[in-house]
């Protein structure tokens, strides 16, 4: 197992470099970089100023936004070339792309992710600031999905083909078919003062008086705020996990060792939870790290926007719109590295759940 883990760790390096090369190359062909964003803001301020002055001073208006146009930056009309060069040096665009990429990767190897272009805060501090929201959504959504899906999936497998299995399958399919953001809107309409009941708060992770509450009061307030977002982000994963659990149990129940255990006179509970459970839950339990990471970083954007939560999903979306490259590439590198390591952890979970699995023999 040690040699297998070492090989997987060594594969992390070229995989991560490949991810960064592809994304860095693509950004070189996307119009509207950070310099263009700054120039657009300056031009917008110039338009406002011209509106205030009524265009009476033609020379002033020409100085702000008129004059010749730069071939490289369309929004640089009327701005001194020295100012453009200063912007390029500030953002590091005075260097060729290859040199910028090598410098970026060297900094990332030392976990130096730099500072956001537009927020005057380091990328690490920005991620730490947004992390509580995403951890709350990811952790509780994953735990809730497992807590409901595993018992329900086992029950459906035991009662396969019964009316209980039929109507629960219908409910699961409906839940899977409803997009998470649409379900979130429905929850707001029903329970957050939209049109019916005002039971849960509409936005935020805590109340304004959270610091003044007792420890128990803080816990109640936290779960009160997080209930609807967690429920909305769990619905699709809950359906998938339930069906996966059911199918895994059905595959194991029909195997010979189960018939042997029943022939020996073991109770149904002993057969299910003493013999079947460990084998059937292999793929479900081992997939927990990957599922948590997917929920944490992959599906929170719309939920965060609908419930006015400021998490990693919203941060990444805004950084992409603003072409805030340190945030985009820094989080891509960090989360890509985490995803690759989580893949190795998932393989280790397989061995932990079922020691009969030997990746060394399979690779050899």
UniProtKB/TrEMBL annotation:
Domain ABC transmembrane type-1, chain residue ranges per copy = 131-350
User: What keywords appear on the UniProt entry?
Assistant: Cell membrane, Membrane, Transmembrane, Transmembrane helix, Transport
Q: Which InterPro entries match?
A: MetI-like (IPR000515), MetI-like_sf (IPR035906)
Annotated transmembrane regions: 9-30, 133-154, 166-192, 222-245, 280-307, 327-353
Membrane topology value: Multi-pass membrane protein
Q: Which compartments does it reside in? A: Cell membrane
- Give the range the annotation lists for the signal sequence: none
Q: Which Pfam families match?
A: BPD_transp_1
Q: Which family does it belong to?
A: Belongs to the binding-protein-dependent transport system permease family.
Q: From the Swiss-Prot or TrEMBL record, give the protein name.
A: Microcin C ABC transporter permease YejB
Which species does this protein come from? Albidovulum marisflavi
